[in-house]
């Protein structure tokens, strides 16, 4: 603490990792399992299958997360939603620790960079995934969607990134490195001046997003100087960001 009570800023840069479909492959089909559970939750509100799909998708499109629509328009307990949707995912059967990924984290030069996770999930799910992947001790800080807070924000809303920077006590966005499987999330970060944004894209695989299945495709407009680097393997970060690896 400095004399005026503010925390002294850490001079190191910071690398933010998204968790779901970034630290593990979309081929695990966890997004499909998640989508089924969210759909079932909508059905418990008294909707038929089609209405449930429609409302799920419309909340997702409008609010970024189905849960944000549910908390606004229905009398539901967000923690009950979390327990029934993310909480029942058989993650132990779907993901395994990856020694190569752990080594990648260990090779990040901690004298130069802090390593944080930035997720749209609640902390319980995020911590569960990190534990199964054997990465818990590699992540210094976690920014998650606080479902318990009324009107909580999420990626890609600018407020979410601003809050993340506040939590990590970093004021210069150009010192932020960021990798996420959502192009929207990465674009939003780049717009806010985050210095080193990378889109993790496993082209050809399918995910369920907002209740709809979509095929992952690379952004082909790579001549655009504003285009964001795309990778299909996190190992590529070593070559893209050599300055933060040992
Ligand atoms: Mg993700």
From TrEMBL:
Superkingdom of the source species: Eukaryota
Name recorded for this polypeptide: Pyrimidine 5-nucleotidase
NCBIfam families: HAD-SF-IA-v3, Pyr-5-nucltdase
Originating species: Suillus discolor
GO BP: any one term: pyrimidine nucleobase metabolic process
GO MF annotation terms: nucleotidase activity
